[in-house]
Amino acid sequence: MSNTHGVLDYQRPAPDPRERVILIFSWLWVGIPAVWGVYHVVVDALKLFR
Amino acid sequence: MALFSFLSRDRTIATPTYNRWRIPTAALAIHLAIGQAYAFSVFNLPLHNQESWKLSTIGWVFSTAIVFLGVSAALFGQWLERVGPRKAMFTAACCFSGGFLVGALGIRLHSFALLLLGYGVLGGFGLGIGYISPVSTLIKWFPDRPGMATGMAIMGFGGGAMIASPLSVGLMNHFRTATSQGVALTFVALAILYFIFMMFGVFSVRLPRPGWKPVGWTPPAASPRLVTTANVTVNEAMRTPQFWLLWWVLCLNVTAGIGVLGQASPMIQEMFFHGNRPAAAAGFVALLSLANMAGRFLWASFSDYIGRKATYTTFFILGMILYAFVPHTGRLQSVALFVLAFVIILSMYGGGFSTIPAYLKDLFGTMHVGAIHGRILTAWSAAGIFGPVLVNYIREYQIDHGVAKANAYSVTMYLMAALLFVGLICNWLVRAVHARHYFTGDVNAPGAPSGAATPVLGTPEGQNV
Fold first, then answer.
1. What 8-state DSSP symbol labels residue B119?
2. In this complex, how many residue pairs, one in chain A and one in chain B, have their CB atoms less than 8 Å apart?
3. Cα dihedral B43/B25/B261/B244 (nearest 10)
4. What does the mean pLDDT of chain B come to?
5. Residues B245-251: what's their mean pLDDT?
6. What is the dotted CATH code of the domain comprising B14-209?
7. Is the pLDDT of residue B462 over 60?
8. Which of B294, B321, B376, B390 has the most Cβ atoms closer than 10 angstroms to its Cβ?
């Protein structure tokens, strides 16, 4: 089997499970503070409609 | 020094299994931190109460930081392309956190000059270097969606204040004593927290291998008219009319947005609430922050589909209509329409920041896009002066000449619409860069101007999709 570039699929490196864990941790690292910040702004923004 | 060899460009090249979706998180770790600058105003009143410095004097700290953001972005862009993103991010983290520490010392010693030198100058350098550090790396990892990638990072800068504001207030409450507002210790805590947070970005960031491209992606055979596959050096880019047209495009778009951003709270109060609902006005400002942040991601992502020129054309035409419409919302006494108009305006203000790196990449290629982006950010510094001055002085002039406060913003809105019309003309004049400006050497050669290669065909590597 080959992809659109003529490279055999088995030539691609296998997915690294460690890499997936790092990826999830990376998004949590920036995501949790961002969600916390957005939560505070949404609470403030709702005052406009009260 | 061997101790810092992990910062070198060579040590930043990605392994074949590296997932490119880690790059936006590295960029966000930097931008969410330095976006704190927009929340500096939370320290104004505590510093005024503790040190008896005038509020207008304290305001200079933020202004200085923004000026040095522009200066350092312009000065260090070329250096960034040479040393790579990791060293630049590390330098940004040191400057930004160092700025807080020197600022804390200034507060402790009751020295405003030291606070200005710390947060304003040193911290400002951290802002500028940090702002541009992930941009060209993102574009190299996401040649298929450069707008979305840079939009995500620059959205972080818009969102940084949302984290910093409640965090700073919480820390000041924790450190407050009978004799101190706790600002100095809050600065120290923020320096440590932000340094750790940014280090995550420093260690995560990687450069793609020369020749890498996303699996399954082939560069379009025929590029749209404005999109080049060639490269232009930063110094050569500044000799093109396209650079200066985009400088004005950015400056005018930012001027229009920044002018009303600072006046949003008094504007809605005077036009609709007669000064009776400060909480609702604060809610309006918060809503505008959300619109600014969301616009950075949404408009830049949208530009991947409709093109950068069409995106800015939308900003200018829609902006003109909305600015001209705002005075009518006052006459109609429709808060909903007023809020809706400004939500869209502020989303386009944010979108203007986040779409510009991809526009530069389209016109000048990827080789020096970070450095060119740094130079064009001086338009932001200029807009930071023009915008508030225009809004404030025109409003004061009208009130001094007997115009009611509620009606004093109408002329300003029409003037903003006129500025956007000039921006529309500048954007309309943008054409593809002439081939005589192209860099003709090998971008992969050791002696070539610093910067990584443009992705080439036929060498897919890694699991990056």
1. I
2. 106
3. 120
4. 88
5. 97
6. 1.20.1250.20
7. no
8. B376
**Residue B153: CA count within 13 A, CB half-sphere:** 31
Judge: A34–B287 Cβ closer than 8 Å, yes or no.
Answer: no
Q: Is the pLDDT of residue B375 over 70?
A: yes
Token duo for residue B23: 């790059």
Residues of B in contact with A29 (CB under 8 A): 25, 29, 197, 200
For tokens 């969102």, what's the residue? B159
Q: Which of A9-23, B9-23, B284-298, B311-325 has the highest mean pLDDT?
A: B311-325
Half-sphere exposure for B7 (CA within 13 Å, toward CB)? 15
The two tokens of residue A33 are 């503070």
B234-434, which class in CATH?
mainly alpha
ipTM for the whole complex: 0.83
Predicted local distance difference test score (pLDDT) of residue B408? 77
Residues of B in contact with A22 (CB under 8 A): 19, 22
Query: Facing residues of B207 across strands?
Result: B13
**Inter-chain residue contact A19 with B18, CB threshold 8 Å:** yes
CA atoms within 13 A on the CB side of B16: 9
Picking from B399, B141, B25, the residue whose alpha carbon sits closest to that of residue A22 is B25
pLDDT in tens, B400-423: 888 877 677 788 888 889 999 999
- Chain A residues inside the 8 Å CB shell of B162: 34, 37-38, 40-41
Give the phi and the psi of residue B455 in degrees, each rounded to 5: -55, 140
User: pLDDT by residue (tens digit) across A7-23?
Assistant: 444 445 666 788 899 99
Contact B32 A33 (CB under 8 A): yes
Local structure of B422: helix, strand or coil? helix
Closest in A16, A33, A48 to B17, CB measured: A16
**What residues does each domain of chain B span?**
14-209, 234-434
Q: How far apart are CA B140 and CA B23, in angstroms?
A: 10
Q: Does B459 have pLDDT greater than 50? A: no
Q: Do A40 and B463 touch (CB under 8 A)?
A: no
**Model pLDDT, residue A48:** 77
- A33 vs B120: CA distance, rounded Å: 25
Is the model's pTM score more than 0.90? no
